């Protein structure tokens, strides 16, 4: 499949950029809508950074777990070491069911069951990769979420040992190993993302009643402590 | 752990050899003994071993080789889970540094600070954590005792009893009657009997649609009552007849030989009769002398008993205040206890007690509901801080998401307990 994909692309590049849109691998515009499911964790486009997941610029041809400045699960690191690279075919398998390809991945995503949806989102991601060549840089599609949290709260340095104790309240539901089945993973998040999410529950901006209740009685120091603990948890 | 076991064997040999000599303790390293490997005990043992990193010897005494969770066992009755999915071994605990002893604890000597085992020998402790779950109050339902549990199963300790009840459900005659005798407060898993009614109704709707369900209940109201009654009306219209205390639901007797249930003087022939009697703390708590009445009163700050500062009681067996008796509660209490016990024995930091609980129930396929609360320790008891409950009339999407969340929780808590 990967060879076929390369072939059709090189033909497309030679003939005319317009044929890219009609490429059999999928419809990038439709893929952009599907990408809305991904962008809470993965940024892509100009200025994209690692957030809960790594950014996805230049993903084509990149080894799995390829960024040194992002902390991947052991499972994905192993897969990368064993030679897994991201191409249309491997992305297709991964997006269908992330755990099928890397059973210990922390990517909290049930997968896209429809092959056309996967083809579309892969076509969308392809826009942001140098490989294949001749793809113009596009506008950013995901940005740092706006928030009005007091910078002093974000600047708090968490007490990770206190966070470890407090984490007991989390790990009854959220697996400390990073697994997720119906309940998202909360391990190895950037501390800032964790703090923002918990304050969004506390302030009832995020909707989940259990999380609103749990976050509601946590103080700023306690949220910082949890963020510090979960950001650096050992697998 | 082999070093610990060897140390223990040497210790007991010495004690046996020198009659009346006081128990010699392994020098330096304190001993914690945990009795009962369920949601409370397994969590406490695993957390103390994990966090103390060898500074405390942790022994778990649990008679069964495989633990079948009582939570989700109703889903087995409804056909949503296989029994094997509810079974968990103790290999992960052993790998996590807990010395797992498969035996019954049959006595506690509070002066010598030892626990004796049915298989012989005894274990010394500096801190003893009891998490034995429940036993049934003798004579709670007229006509029923443990010798009748095959004719009229309780199925309130998961495993063979659950399988028996399921088999009886499957062999019910068409149009037959399933009866439940519900327990009085307080008891394990407040929504449990009513989730069970829902799961039985789900099974019967598919396999025996003209069958009836009668519930005799000594209570006038029950956990998530509005949600269950809405669900029964929506999914199982006309099938469930709930008879609360106002209509004599508390005035019952059974005849396991004749398979009859008598409610307020009226005799009914039944095909299956699920008797869930009144409950009390598992017997070892009584044997340790830390109970008052049916339960063991504890201090909210660390789950130590009022009777003995070196004995802690977790979960269903404890009398602690506002928390319901649930696996989630036991798991939550275990972490507070583990932090306090480790602090007391090694001087590690002790943080303020925080507790929480959420109970999910399944009413029908994809129709999940939940209730939960957070709690804190006060000098008197574990006191509720804040809570929430699913609403009647919620959309199917919300209920489906709640069910999926309960499945996630199941994986989370069993991983948290067993490693």
TrEMBL record, chain A:
Signal peptide range: 1-21
InterPro entries reported for this sequence: Cyt_c-like_dom (IPR009056), Cyt_c-like_dom_sf (IPR036909), Cyt_c_1A/1B (IPR002327)
This protein's UniProt keywords: Electron transport, Heme, Iron, Metal-binding, Signal, Transport
Residue intervals of the Cytochrome c domain: 26-129, 158-234
Entry GO MF terms: electron transfer activity; heme binding; metal ion binding
PANTHER family tied to this protein: CYTOCHROME C (PTHR11961)
Protein name: Cytochrome c2
UniProtKB/TrEMBL annotation, chain B:
Lineage: superkingdom: Bacteria
Ranges of residues in domain Sulfide dehydrogenase [flavocytochrome c] flavoprotein chain central: 163-277
Matching PROSITE patterns: TAT (PS51318)
GO molecular function: flavin adenine dinucleotide binding; sulfide dehydrogenase activity
Pfam families cross-referenced by the UniProt entry: FCSD-flav_bind (PF09242), FCSD_central (PF21706), Pyr_redox_2 (PF07992)
EC number: 1.8.2.3
SUPFAM superfamilies associated with the record: FAD/NAD(P)-binding domain (SSF51905), FAD/NAD-linked reductases, dimerisation (C-terminal) domain (SSF55424)
Record key words, sorted: FAD, Flavoprotein, Oxidoreductase, Signal
Signal peptide: 1-26
Flavocytochrome c sulphide dehydrogenase flavin-binding domain: residues covered: 353-418
Ranges for domain FAD/NAD(P)-binding: 31-134
EC category name: oxidoreductase
Record-linked PANTHER family: FAD-DEPENDENT PYRIDINE NUCLEOTIDE-DISULPHIDE OXIDOREDUCTASE (PTHR43755:SF1), PTHR43755
This protein's name: Sulfide dehydrogenase [flavocytochrome c] flavoprotein chain
